[in-house]
Amino acid sequence: VNLASVNLAGVNLASVNLAGVNLASVNFASVNLGSVKMIKTILILSSVIACISTDVYSTTTSFDVKVGKTKKKATCDVDITYTGDTASKADSTVKCSIPWPKASALSKTVTKSFTIGDVKDIVFTAEVSFTLKKNKNKAASTVKTILNSIASVPFTADASFYPASLWCPQEDTLIFGSGNYDSVVNEADADSYDQCAQRCAEFTNESGNSPCFSWTFNSNSEDVLGLGAGTCRLLAYMEVSSMTATGVQSGYHKCWNAMLTSTAP
Description:
Blueprint lengths: L35 H16 L3 E13 L2 E14 L2 E12 L8 E12 L5 E12 L9 E11 L18 E4 L7 E6 L3 H10 L11 E5 L12 E5 L5 E4 L3 E5 L2 H9 L2
């Protein structure tokens, strides 16, 4: 958008695609700032644009593709660009490779679902549809990935429950929730889930209280739904919800004492 050529008095701000405004490219020296109203409008535009947050979810997924009697494993790099709870097809990519036989044609449409976001804020599911395509007598390296669509589906968490029912630890499970007064009492790096469990059992706040009621630990080398890699999150006294998350362990505040008891001679 070239602000120098825009009659700001006639601009309907509700219809402006602010995500496409690149203020860095605007030549403000050439803009006629003859009125205070125009200056205010530009400042409002700048403030709104600064608040727009675009994130990218990246993952690699593998799955079997079968057409007739031929079955091969495809590996796809997926990058989904999203704002809030909405994914952008135009800004997202899917790139797949598959050792499909040269003599065989390939045309296979696949739909994969990815849970995206931050459990402390917004989580949604992106349903990605794409097609793997190759002509007969063409090398596997010529396989094309065609991104057909991305549907953004609201995520519904499981019913909340009392965390005492968790195993010690509950494997591949991320817990989260919202307490009456507090939700997260501490968040810091940890070496393992047992260190996280110990931290929960021994943690005290500035008032000398022990506010940790349950904990969740990400053992992965990448963030998972807002929980940083190698991060231990201590949760306040509250019921929690859970969702499947590979490499994440969770537990109750009494887990550490139970571990000590089970390993004692």
